[in-house]
Amino acid sequence: EIVMTQSPATLSVSPGERATLSCRASQSVSSNLAWYQQKPGQAPRLLIYGASTRATGIPARFSGSGSGTEFTLTISSLQSEDFAVYYCQQYNNWPPGRTFGGGTKVEIK
Amino acid sequence: QLQLQESGSGLVKPSQTLSLTCAVSGGSISSGGYSWSWIRQPPGKGLEWIGYIYHSGSTYYNPSLKSRVTISVDRSKNQFSLKLSSVTAADTAVYYCAREEQQLVYAYWGQGTLVTVSS
């Protein structure tokens, strides 16, 4: 099973500042990496897939990068609605399971 | 617009079987190219992938849950189901159903349903 590790667990950022979230895979997942945003009481929302492709309707301030085992989600200028928990998820072809990282909470500084 | 809605018992006794159904509307569960998944989230914790069923009917489960999980599809009702046997308190969670897209990610989710395991 591929293990996904996210860091930091909590990130304190002021509105308007840049946030950088990391996700590491225990083995290469190529570019088979997605990012989700989850707010309290809501289902996760897909932000990024293929490591760097924004999903439909996702603002340009969200960007993803990386490949292999190291990935980054960057929020260029945090808006009030961006304070949430972010999860990465791998979907490599083999093994065929899916795994999520433990999440990074982005909170207001 | 595709919509998914979970339903089932919100309270299950230890050692019994948890059963949930996900009703799909706005699209056919038989459409090729998609898989139908269950994902759970214990209170205050992260997401755990449970498993999926392909449109063809084949399944794949999280190895840590494999011995207790069954996912099935009822095409006549346009829904799919989750059964998790021999539950314990550790299975208490919000359970989400979701559609896995051709890009192998989850763009459509149900709202989630809380299942509590308690006597």
Q: How are the elements arranged and paired?
A:
The complex is a heterodimer of chains A (109) and B (119).
Chain A: E1 4-7, E2 10-13, E3 19-25, E4 33-38, E5 45-49, E6 53-54, E7 62-67, E8 70-75, E9 85-90, E10 99-100, E11 104-108
Parallel strand pairs in A: 2-11
Antiparallel strand pairs in A: 1-3, 3-8, 4-5, 4-9, 5-6, 7-8, 9-10, 9-11
Chain B: E1 3-8, E2 11-12, E3 18-25, E4 35-41, E5 48-54, E6 59-61, E7 69-74, E8 79-84, E9 93-100, E10 106-109, E11 113-117
Parallel strand pairs in B: 2-11
Antiparallel strand pairs in B: 1-3, 3-8, 4-5, 4-9, 5-6, 7-8, 9-10, 9-11
Give a written overview of the molecule.
The complex is a heterodimer of chains A (109) and B (119). Chain A is globular. Chain A is built from no helices and eleven strands. The mean pLDDT of chain A is 95. Helix content of chain A is 0%, strand content 49%. In chain A, strands 2, 4, 5, 6, 9, 10 and 11 form a seven-stranded mixed sheet that branches. Chain A has a four-stranded antiparallel sheet with strand order 1-3-8-7, with no helix packed on it. The radius of gyration of chain B is 13 Å and the shape is globular. Chain B is built from no helices and eleven strands. The A-B interface holds A 1, 32, 34, 36, 38, 43-44, 46, 49-50, 55-56, 87, 89, 91, 96-103 and B 37, 39, 46-49, 52, 60-64, 96, 98, 103-107, 109-112.
